[in-house]
Please model this.
Amino acid sequence: MNDVSIVAVATLTIADTGRPIVLRTKYILLQRNGGLRIGSETQPHTSPLEIILYGRSDDPHVHPVFGRKFIGVDSTASIDIHGPWKLSWTFLATTLQPGI
Model:
């Protein structure tokens, strides 16, 4: 797949099928009230899901705002991603020094 563009009040909802899903694309662009939904607060997406953005740094197709490989969302669109809860931080054993 070269690109995923979701526009004009459309929504892409990724189903939680219990099977792994791989979405391989150059970019995902959400505009004009478009939406991307993966799970919800009450039903988090628990199946393996991988979004792979591919492409070359010298690709001649360049989006004027987002560039070459991106998940881009304009001010009217939205992304909702909900997966299983997990701790997203930790305590450090020692203090880190800036620039090291």
The beta strands are 4-6, 11-14, 21-25, 27-30, 35-38, 49-53, 70-73, 78-81. The chain is about 0% helix and 35% strand. The mean pLDDT is 89. The first strand starts at residue 4 and ends at 6.
